[in-house]
Amino acid sequence: MTLQADNSAESFLRRHAFWVFYGIAVAIASAVVVANQFVDTSEALPKYWAFLESNNLYGNLISLIRFSAEEPFWAWSGRIFAAAPTIAAVIVVLLIAGWPGLRHLLSRLKPWRNGVGWKQGLRVYAAMALIYAAMIGFFNTLVAHFGEPDELSTYFSILGGVPLAVYATLFLGTLIDEGGTLEELGWRGFALPELLNRMINPLVASIVLGVLWWLWHFPREIPILLGEGSLFDTLYRGSYWRFAMAQLSFVSLTVALSIVCTYTFNLTGGSALSAIIIHGGTNALAKSSASYMSGFSLDFPTDPRGILVILIAIIVMLAAGPRLGQGTRPDPAVPRT
Fold first, then answer.
1. Are 90 and 102 in contact, with CB atoms under 8 Å apart?
2. Do 249 and 154 form a contact (C-beta atoms < 8 A)?
3. Tens of pLDDT along 82-97?
4. Looking at residues 327-336, what average pLDDT do you find?
5. What's the whole-number mean pLDDT along residues 253-262?
6. Residue 24's pLDDT is what?
7. Can you tell me the distance from the alpha carbon of 35 to that of 284, in angstroms, rounded to the nearest whole number?
8. 47 CB-contact burial (10 Å; exposed 0-12 / middle 13-18 / buried 19+)
9. 181-199 pLDDT, tens digit each
10. Cβ 94 vs Cβ 102: under 8 Å
11. Are 301 and 249 in contact (CB under 8 A)?
């Protein structure tokens, strides 16, 4: 009877693994948001911005760790929020397949896997590096063109001062961003292979995951949207229209990023590392430059990062089609034991 019950529970978890994972990820993120309502963290984000400015830093895991001494609850709860998809993936694979399942999940941190050779793997990462270097140059040009002289000086000071240091800092930023580093083993290590094995093609799976990825972020917006504090005025100038446009911009970004990440995931045999680099790199570009382009404004719902990522996603779709580089079906998110 116990064996049958265990088999039934495992069977249920396997059939509904994606939604169990997603429910846990949303629950963790929502719990963090609720917990923050019981601790006065209303000034934490402005203090973090001031901390970054006064120390010539931009937002990443290292600067967040340094800020932990000033606002430990806010800083640590933010890391738990970001890690929610990875925590959820670890829980689900342990429940279904135990330690072999966890080893399988962690194998997705390899740069290439599942029969992909080192030559193909290096070609993929070399192409990613070239595209990212071009994006860094584009963002530097934007800051130089749209920023004030003091903004340009501060921007380059934060990133190392000289061109080579700027590139080195932003390449390192691909691996120390809290979003890419903490989230992606969940989204691309677990959720994507689940959807790829269940949906009609990788493009549809990517769009679905992109929308759900955006929706998972939404709990953090609710206190800002409903509150009467300064954050709503600071972030959205007190305008619900700007809030709606910001959400439209963000969901277009998550869908486009999801398409690009699926493409590199397929080309590397199911490596989540490629997605960590892409997610982390685009965040590093946006976070390091956001405050230093006072002359840049757009009347439609996107930003320079969004424009670039959407264009890259369109090129990927045109070049690779709806299969996004997929050959055979990927290995499952949770192996049979």
1. yes
2. no
3. 999 999 999 999 999 9
4. 83
5. 98
6. 98
7. 28
8. middle
9. 999 999 999 999 999 999 9
10. yes
11. yes
292, HSE (Cβ side, Cα atoms, 13 Å): 27
Give every CB contact of residue 175 below 8 A, 6+ residues apart in sequence: 181, 276, 277, 280
Task: Check: CB of residue 265 under 8 Å from CB of residue 259.
Answer: no
The pLDDT value given to residue 1: 41
The rounded distance, in Å, linking the Cα atoms of 295 and 282 is: 21
Q: Please report the pLDDT score of residue 2 as a whole number.
A: 46
Judged against a pLDDT cut of 60, whether residue 25 lies above it is answered with yes
Structure token pair of residue 29: 């993120």
The DSSP output letter for 331 is P
Could you tell me if 209 and 192 are in contact, meaning their C-beta atoms sit under 8 angstroms apart? Answer: yes
> What's the CA gap between 166 and 159, in Å, rounded?
5
- Give the HSE-up count for residue 47: Cα atoms under 13 Å, Cβ half-sphere: 15
Compute the distance between CA of residue 288 and CA of residue 263 in angstroms, rounded to an integer.
26
Decide: 330 and 114 in contact? Cβ < 8 Å: yes
Across 4-18, 52-66, 286-300, least confident range = 286-300
pLDDT computed for residue 294 by the predictor = 57
**pLDDT tens profile 47-64:** 898 898 888 889 999 999
The torsion defined by the Cα of 137, 143, 146 and 152, in degrees rounded to 10, comes to: -140
Give just the sign of the alpha carbon dihedral 224, 230, 233, 234. Answer: negative
Q: In this structure, which amino acid lies at residue 279?
A: H
Q: How far is CA 50 from CA 23, 47, 55, 70, 291, in A?
A: 35, 5, 8, 12, 12
Alpha-carbon span 149 to 130, nearest angstrom: 28
Kindly state the tokens that stand for 214. Answer: 């955006």
Residue bearing the bigger pLDDT, 238 or 76: 76
State how far the Cα of 265 lies from the Cα of 124, in Å rounded to an integer.
Answer: 10
Cβ within 8 Å of residue 254, ≥6 positions away: 210, 211, 213, 214, 217
